[in-house]
Amino acid sequence: MKHNDILKDLKNKVYHPIYFLSGEEPFYIDLISNFIEKNVLDEAEKEFNQQIIYGKDTDISTVISAAKRYPMMANHNVVIVKEAQHLIKQIDQLDSYLDNPTKSTILVFCYKYKTLDGRKGITKKLSKKSVFFESKPIYENQVPDWINNYLKEKNYTINPKASFLIAEFLGTDLSKVANELEKLTINIPEGTEINAEMVEKNIGISKDFNMFELNKAIGSKDILKANKIINHFAKNEKEHPIQATIAVLYMFFTAILKYHYTKDKNPRNIAVALKISPFFVKEYQLAAKNYDIRKAVKVIEYIREYDLKSKGVNNVSSSSGELTKELVFKILH
């Protein structure tokens, strides 16, 4: 099941005896388990009928014993096993309980950062006999859309530049992104379109000195602006590590190459092919004019060269800031 379907059922009080929540992305595991923890029982019922168990401090037999208890003056007994990945060697012992779970119990396993081996019998059985959910990590280029959807559910919109800034600054850690979005919306009325200025003010991300603006400056060959941004990066290496800069530049120029090789240059088709917002298509059109296929390939060679240098290959003394300046100089000239 998808996380939205699970949450929809939970909100409609459609409960199942066993939930096995696993995967590399903890955000959705927490979202589902927290909802169960906070909403299935009222405060009075929780005292006798809700138990939080930690995998590193228990064993499967203890979990099963807790799950077999009947509720006291409530409809459900809730048992949530956090850090269930520590029970990996004992998971097979769930086999018999899966055949005959206690109907009044809601047993939740939070198996974070890992997945079960799909070839094993217990995994196949869990997928059939429980609400089996695998939380997969998202890719960097999916984060802006994720931000848009998250805010839409809270009755906000966000312009493409602002969502890109947040995605670039916070990466793919959805829990971290969601936390910052919560802080952002505290001070902004519902129904507002969030822009870069609001992001800068409330999250502390510079709207002028970031990878979005660097890509734009390089794509348009605005040498003065690119140098200003790179000098800022060089002075703030902790906030703008060269590895992150190299990764984004690599994606930018591979996208330029893809633009060149896409036959249908209709803006809508380009947005789909490059997996970008239509808002950014004009910037790629301009970048493609300034960097033909030969030049774009050469730039990617430079990026790979400086990626190695940033890791100490053929580099004795240059700092990350100096390497970034050199790389951008070669790209622009």
Describe this structure in words.
The chain has a 5-stranded parallel sheet, with helices on both faces. It has a two-stranded parallel ribbon with strand order 6-7. The longest helix is centred in the last third of the chain and has 20 residues. The model has no long low-confidence stretch (mean pLDDT 93). Helix content is 56%, strand content 10%. It is elongated. It is built from 17 helices and 7 strands. By secondary structure, the protein is α/β, with parallel strands linked by helices. It has 3 domains: 132 residues, Rossmann fold; 64 residues, Helicase, Ruva Protein, domain 3 (Orthogonal Bundle); 122 residues, Zinc Finger, Delta Prime, domain 3. Helix 7 packs across helix 9.
Which short descriptors sum up this protein?
333 residues; 7 strands; 3 domains; two-stranded parallel sheet; Helicase, Ruva Protein, domain 3; Rossmann fold
